[in-house]
Specification:
It is built from 8 helices and 12 strands. It is α/β, with parallel strands linked by helices. This is tRNA G18 (Ribose-2'-O)-methylase SpoU.
């Protein structure tokens, strides 16, 4: 079906996309709620292949034709000026989609995975307060064999528009769960057979390359926020504290880069 034309920025059919600069969510929508917003053709294609239910798609002329939209998905077309007025900024990617949120995964189900005997890797994030860092970590996780994200209660919303955008939509394919009892709840990972590895630049930590992934088929990599890193309590609760060896004079990597190195090393 041909997309319906939108000429009025106040049209209620595109209400999901209104004023997205206001905290990455429409006005009046509480943090961590409301629709998931996805930008760009590649990311929207990943949304369409994900388990998230698509609510609507809107784009400039020509971009919607690049998508293989399933029957029943509302599609709207607007010129770049109307679309900019709706969302509150100039969109360079040409297309947006909204989707219903999914509830967090059952924690025990995430820890077990489809096959409780199979090797498994998780990324465990503490206090990560930057949505773009989280999106970059999610993209590396999918690329480098991580099977899910486990968040402490203070982490930024992994489904913020900026997180989804930086992940190129890959965060939508990752199971995500919250560990409410932090960091004591890490014992649930240990009981499920995971070796928890806390990343830190501390000199007394072991070399990350010394951890043999074949000897530890289930590994959970703990990462803290940019700057402060993991709290002492989280490091104490982990089984291993590990560092990425670097040239002298460089104290640490950014958390997204450190995550990618760790995921690749522990594949």
């Amino acid at each position: 079906m041909a997309p319906e034309e939108i000429t009025d920025p106040a049209d209620e059919r595109v209400a999901d996309f209104r004023d997205l600069v206001a905290g990455d969510r429409p006005p009046g929508v509480e943090r961590g709620t409301g629709p998931v917003i996805v930008e760009g053709v590649p990311a929207v294609q990943r949304l369409l292949a994900s388990p998230y239910r698509v609510r609507a798609v809107v784009g400039v002329p020509g971009r919607l034709a690049e998508l293989d939209l399933p029957e029943g998905v509302p599609a709207y077309e607007a010129d770049k000026w109307v679309l900019s007025a709706v969302i509150g900024f100039r969109l360079t990617r040409g297309v947006l989609a909204s989707a219903d949120r999914r509830p967090p995964e059952d924690l025990d189900g995430l820890l077990a995975g489809p096959d409780p005997a199979a090797p498994r890797r998780l990324a465990v994030l503490e206090g990560l307060n930057d949505a773009e860092n989280l999106g970059s970590i999610a993209r590396s996780a999918v690329a480098l064999g991580v099977d899910g994200l486990l968040l402490d209660p203070r982490c930024v919303d992994p489904l913020y528009r900026r997180s989804v955008r930086v992940s190129m939509g890959h965060v939508l394919s990752l199971p995500i769960a919250v560990l409410p009892d932090w960091p004591a709840g890490l014992d649930r990972l240990h009981a499920a057979g995971y070796l928890s590895v806390a990343l830190t630049p501390a000199d007394d930590a072991v070399d990350l390359a010394d951890i043999d992934p074949r000897a530890h088929p289930r590994t959970a990599v703990l990462l803290g926020a940019e700057g402060p890193g993991l709290t002492p309590a989280a490091q104490a609760a982990a089984r291993v504290r590990a560092r990425i060896p670097m040239r002298s004079g460089v104290d640490s990597l950014g958390v997204a880069a450190a995550a990618a190195v760790a995921f690749a090393t522990l594949r």
